[in-house]
Amino acid sequence: MPLDLGCEAPSYWDATPEAERGPGSFLNSELCLLRRGEDVDYFMRGCLALPIIGMNENFVFGLWTSLSRQNFDRAIELNNEAVLDPDEGNPFGWLSNAVPGFPNCLNLKLRVHHSPHPQRPFFELEPSDHPLAIAQRVGISTDDVVQIVAPLISH
Q1: Which Pfam families does the UniProt record give (predicted)?
Q2: Cystine design at 72: which of 5, 67, 146, 153 (Cβ 3.0–4.6 Å)?
Q3: Nearest-angstrom CA–CA distance, 155 and 149
């Protein structure tokens, strides 16, 4: 049973037809910049871990968050750092993907915890009563993992 699932792009990238992506828009495995008319959105990929109850493992989603321009620029600077300053801080972002098995996840508030290169940053959802935020705080069962994964591998 896989313990990791990933999204290759922010939902907003996928929802924007290629012809509507402005000059300078790009998507790579870690960062995304999306120009739509006068609007510019900045995204970074990271990991959202859900503890699996009764196991010493996490179920990890590779997801995207939006960032401010300033935090995006700083993420680029930190991308190659092997050691991070503990006082770096945890920038604010908005979850930018739908998450299988959880309703209405787009734009959940989160904090980015940068990790030393080559690890991806991890995302900590702000406390709320959203099922994904609860799952990150208290964990999910192995049955929950099966329910999340089964529809994805049966195709």
Answers
A1: DUF2199
A2: 67
A3: 11
Structure tokens belonging to residue 21: 């992506």
Are 58 and 52 spatial neighbours (Cβ–Cβ below 8 Å)? yes
Task: Check: pTM over 0.85? Answer yes or no.
Answer: yes
- Closest to 13 in 3D by CA, of 30, 3, 25, 29: 25
Q: Is 107 left (phi over 0), alpha (psi -120 to 50) or beta?
A: left
Residues 6+ apart with CB under 8 A from 117: 79, 80, 81, 82
Q: How far is CA 81 from the centre of its chain?
A: 20
DSSP-derived letter for residue 84 is -
Distance CA 26, CA 60 (A): 25
Which amino acid belongs to residue 52?
Answer: I
pLDDT of the chain along its 155 residues, tens only? 556 888 999 999 999 999 999 999 999 999 999 999 999 999 999 999 999 999 999 999 999 999 999 999 988 888 777 677 777 789 999 999 999 899 999 999 999 998 877 788 999 999 999 999 999 999 999 999 998 888 777 65
